[in-house]
């Protein structure tokens, strides 16, 4: 069985590496980013940037970044040389309705799903920082026909701890964005209640401890706002098909929470931002609200230093930050007499007197 993983980013590469261990010699990866391909080749992986190298593939596992309307997925599909009888599994997160467009796309190429070619959607739901491999979590699987579902079962059942089969492929699409949007709403709720607590001088952590002592409730922690690759994007995907006052309000509330942090600091301050990765415990600066915060504070006329236990000072410097250790050398005075921002207590910095007016 020849397997090809399409898109070798965060998800695709980890999937590729996982499968290489299971199906040694049978797995190849493709990515349109030449630098990525060169980097992986240098590390000894069997990868290519040229779709023409991919012949007689039995199983295509699609994990490209989706694009706003699935454009990367369709670009990949357009280049793949498809053999009759092969299985295409779309693992990327999709704007609802995309799988129907994929089926139409294949039909335009003369391929009928369920007879000429098998098509399934098995959205990824790995939790980086928690899961050990990309296949630790049960997976939802949806298809247009029973034949497609059966092909999918045969491939995935030995790889994942469980398959949740759904009878309507739209359920598979929606399940992914809904689970992330549910989390988005939970985080926004935390931000709103934390904001209220900060206004009232109530200890939010104590409130969390109290509320979370009921076993079916989880009041989450706050951070610099909702970042990462997925929650904000999946909120946009869902909002593009589901008109909801709640969803609209949630995006607005997160924006307001982030602006409030910047507004509370004001301008002309020395500020230390503690933690810039996109979330606690995961060493990744992409789509980080911590990075956005530093830019916004600087744009407001503050001098900002950062520290993050996940990064060395050199890594932070090369990412363009002033590092806490630099401050003495720069003779800029100490941030100790300025403002210190902690990611989970962003609204409780020690406020300089002139700002302590309940903003
Ligand atoms: N990162 C995460 O925690 C999770 C991501 N996902 C979903 O998985 C998908 C991939 O996400 P990531 O790996 O994080 O993205 P990424 O941005 O790290 O990697 C995507 C890769 O796809 C490549 N690509 C784009 N167009 C291509 C094409 N036409 N052919 C071949 N390669 C192409 C890019 O060059 C890039 O290397 C997205 O739909 C995302 O929403 C799902 C669950 C978790
Ligand atoms: C735990 C969980 O369900 N993760 C899913 C999620 O992963 P991601 O790494 O984006 O996680 P996560 O939701 O923790 O943080 C996002 C932001 O919220 C902020 N956040 C988070 C928790 C909290 O208590 N407070 C908070 O502010 C936090 O600071 C971030 O800024 O999307 C992945 C995806 O589809 O790609 C899914 O596969 C994962 O299963």
UniProtKB/TrEMBL annotation:
Domain UDP-glucose/GDP-mannose dehydrogenase N-terminal: 1-46
Keyword Oxidoreductase: yes
Enzyme Commission no: 1.1.1.136
Source species, domain of life: Bacteria
Family that this chain belongs to: Belongs to the UDP-glucose/GDP-mannose dehydrogenase family.
Enzyme class: oxidoreductase
Domain UDP-glucose/GDP-mannose dehydrogenase dimerisation span(s) in chain numbering: 171-244
GO MF, one example: UDP-N-acetylglucosamine 6-dehydrogenase activity
Name of the molecule in the record: UDP-N-acetyl-D-glucosamine 6-dehydrogenase
InterPro entries for the chain: 6-PGluconate_DH-like_C_sf, NAD(P)-bd_dom_sf, UDP-Glc/GDP-Man, UDP-Glc/GDP-Man_DH_C_sf, UDP-Glc/GDP-Man_DH_dimer, UDP-Glc/GDP-Man_DH_N, UDP_ManNAc/GlcNAc_DH
Gene3D superfamilies (alphabetical): NAD(P)-binding Rossmann-like Domain
Record keywords: Oxidoreductase
GO biological process, any: polysaccharide biosynthetic process
Higher taxonomy: Bacteria, Bacillati, Bacillota, Clostridia, Eubacteriales
The gene coding this protein: wbpA_3
């Amino acid at each position: 069985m020849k397997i090809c993983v399409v898109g070798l980013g965060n998800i695709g590469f980890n999937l590729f590496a996982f499968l290489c261990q299971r199906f040694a010699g049978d797995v190849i990866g493709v990515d349109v980013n030449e630098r990525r391909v060169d980097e992986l080749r240098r590390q000894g992986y069997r990868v290519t940037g040229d779709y023409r190298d991919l012949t007689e593939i039995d199983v295509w596992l699609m994990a490209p970044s989706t694009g706003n309307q699935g454009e990367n997925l369709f670009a990949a599909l357009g280049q793949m040389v498809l053999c009759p009888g092969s299985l295409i599994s779309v693992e990327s997160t999709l704007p609802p309705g995309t799988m129907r467009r994929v089926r139409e796309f294949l039909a335009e190429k003369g391929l009928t799903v369920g007879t000429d070619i098998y098509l399934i959607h098995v959205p990824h739901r790995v939790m980086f920082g928690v899961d050990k491999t990309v296949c630790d979590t049960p997976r939802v699987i949806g298809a247009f026909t029973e034949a497609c579902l059966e092909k999918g079962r045969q491939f995935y059942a030995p790889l994942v701890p469980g398959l949740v089969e759904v009878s309507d492929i739209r359920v598979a699409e929606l399940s992914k964005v809904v689970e992330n949007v549910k989390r988005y709403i939970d985080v926004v709720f935390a931000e709103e209640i934390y904001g209220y607590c900060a206004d009232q001088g109530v200890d939010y952590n104590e409130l969390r401890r109290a509320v979370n002592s009921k076993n079916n409730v989880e009041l989450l922690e706050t951070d610099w706002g909702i970042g990462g690759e997925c929650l904000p994007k999946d909120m946009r995907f869902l909002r593009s098909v589901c008109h909801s006052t709640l969803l609209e309000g949630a995006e607005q509330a997160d924006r307001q929470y982030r602006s409030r942090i910047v507004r509370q600091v004001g301008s002309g301050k020395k500020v230390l931002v503690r933690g810039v990765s996109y979330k606690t415990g995961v060493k990744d600066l992409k789509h980080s609200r911590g990075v956005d915060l530093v830019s916004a504070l600087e744009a407001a006329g503050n001098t900002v230093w950062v520290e993050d236990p996940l990064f060395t000072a050199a890594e932070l410097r090369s990412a363009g930050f002033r590092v806490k250790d630099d401050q003495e050398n720069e003779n800029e005075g100490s941030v100790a007499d300025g403002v210190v921002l902690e990611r989970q207590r962003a609204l409780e910095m020690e406020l300089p007197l002139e700002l302590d007016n309940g903003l």
